[in-house]
Q: What sequence folds into this?
């Protein structure tokens, strides 16, 4: 490799008889930038989703920052409670939001009249999911009593969990409605809905946690109510846009409201494995966190903060993953798997570069992240937490590079309909590589926090390679979630 002027070349020796073949990297980048499945198309789709998921991570970050300012007990209790509630909710989010993949494939196949219909089936599932999660409200004392955390944390965990359960319908329905826009490749409404919801949440957090502007000081309960109220805004915002006359004329968003048992069954057939996979993924880390809680408040708080800092990188990367999944769905619906594959590699190039930069910042600039939590916290109480968090961020820096592979390649095959494999692999790896080893190491052999984090990091690395191998197999290229084209067109 050499640099000539401002153009870099790779030399490929063909044989002794012929001179090396020189391929300018600048040409390769320029060709991939503007072509179908290239960087530009991926970024146009992904940027609003990156900003959207970035606002979610910002919302969570500020929630935890305010709670860290409020008390060490509040920040320690918030993550287990929110993760447990999100774990229960995740099976419904994963199932219902898979309607977006149907939208993408119907759109790619030019079957526009089916788009409104599948959106409504997703909404019916979302309503049912919101009711089921709310029914966990009275079970909270029993759940947290058996987890075994410190007695002073349990009332805070119970309160946070119960209030979040009451507001579950908003996030589940938002997953369906945002999938409508993402499936069409129109992601700016998703971004604006989440930006405004985040601003609402931040303002309400400040008012309700600390008791400003006439609000009572509610502490951790105030953070939960702020999350619930803000979560309803995107649903209202999306419905106003989706039910407009223009969308009704093109996609039957109003008239296709009737239940369709066949389509609902098909959505469940592909969406439920996606929901179970999401549930197992979240549940594995929830159990991992709950087991760490047995080590003490300092270890739990530091782990909470390290995971929360990781959301700064993880959630924007999830935005790229959603964009990859939608592009794969559109191209597979249009019977162009090669362009779908090209989109996946374009996404992987960009996300890996991004995560490398973020990983370096975790190693070399950890205090820049920790400062937000320590700024207004009690120095004596927070000092040991900050010291441990710095070390844990080195684990995060390592595993987030492999998390790129997990997100990109699992979302890619899911976009084609390969949800059963993703579900099966996640169940096996979560149980056998994360949950059982963590329980044995901490509960039975009484190992410490670093052993737990070695296990968690190994789990993510193995997941990354598992989904890469599945993607390279090409099995996803022959899959489709939508019905036979010709039959639907005759109907």
A:
């Amino acid at each position: 490799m050499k640099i000539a002027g401002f153009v870099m070349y790779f030399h490929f020796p063909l044989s002794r008889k012929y001179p090396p073949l020189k391929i300018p990297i600048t040409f390769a980048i320029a060709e991939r930038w503007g072509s179908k499945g290239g960087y530009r198309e991926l970024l146009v789709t992904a940027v609003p989703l990156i900003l959207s998921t970035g606002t979610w991570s910002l919302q969570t970050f500020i929630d935890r920052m305010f709670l860290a300012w409020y008390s060490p007990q509040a920040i320690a209790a918030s993550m287990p409670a929110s993760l447990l509630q999100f774990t229960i909710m995740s099976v419904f989010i994963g199932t219902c939001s898979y309607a977006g993949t149907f939208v993408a494939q119907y759109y790619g196949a030019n079957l526009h009249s089916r788009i409104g219909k599948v959106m409504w089936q997703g909404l019916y599932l979302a309503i049912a999911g919101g009711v089921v999660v709310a029914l966990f409200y009275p079970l909270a004392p029993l759940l947290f009593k058996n987890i075994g955390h410190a007695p002073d944390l349990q009332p805070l965990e119970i309160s946070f969990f119960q209030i979040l359960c009451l507001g579950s319908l908003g996030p589940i329905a938002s997953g369906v409605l945002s999938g409508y826009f993402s499936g069409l490749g129109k992601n700016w409404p998703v971004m604006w809905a989440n930006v405004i919801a985040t601003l609402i949440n931040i303002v309400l957090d400040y008012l309700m946690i600390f008791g400003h502007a006439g609000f009572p000081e509610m502490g951790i309960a105030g953070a939960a109510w702020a999350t619930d109220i803000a979560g309803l805004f995107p649903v209202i915002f999306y419905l106003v846009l989706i039910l407009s006359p223009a969308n009704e004329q093109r996609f039957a968003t109003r008239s296709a409201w009737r239940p369709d048992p066949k389509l609902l069954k098909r959505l469940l057939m592909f969406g439920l494995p996606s929901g179970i996979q999401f549930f197992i993924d979240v549940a594995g880390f929830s159990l991992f966190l709950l087991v760490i809680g047995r080590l003490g408040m300092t270890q739990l708080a530091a782990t909470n903060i390290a995971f929360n800092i990781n959301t700064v990188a993880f959630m924007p990367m999830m935005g790229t993953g959603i964009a990859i999944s939608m592009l794969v769905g559109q191209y597979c619906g249009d019977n162009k798997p090669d362009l779908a594959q090209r989109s996946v590699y374009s996404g992987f190039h960009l996300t890996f570069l991004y995560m490398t930069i973020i990983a370096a910042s975790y190693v070399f600039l950890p205090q820049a992240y920790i400062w937000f939590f320590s700024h207004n916290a009690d120095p004596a109480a927070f000092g040991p937490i900050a010291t441990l968090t710095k070390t844990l961020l080195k684990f995060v820096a390592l595993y987030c590079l492999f998390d790129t592979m997990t997100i990109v390649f699992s979302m890619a095959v899911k976009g084609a309909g390969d949800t059963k494999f993703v579900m099966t692999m996640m169940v096996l790896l979560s149980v056998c590589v994360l949950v059982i080893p963590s329980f044995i190491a901490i509960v039975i052999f009484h190992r410490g926090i670093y052993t737990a984090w070695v296990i968690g990091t190994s789990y993510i690395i193995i997941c990354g390679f598992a989904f890469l191998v599945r993607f390279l197999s090409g099995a996803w290229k022959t899959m489709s979630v939508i019905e036979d084209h010709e039959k639907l067109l005759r109907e």
Remarks:
- The beta strands are 2-4, 7-12, 21-24.
- Residues 40-479 form one domain.
- The chain has a mean pLDDT of 87.
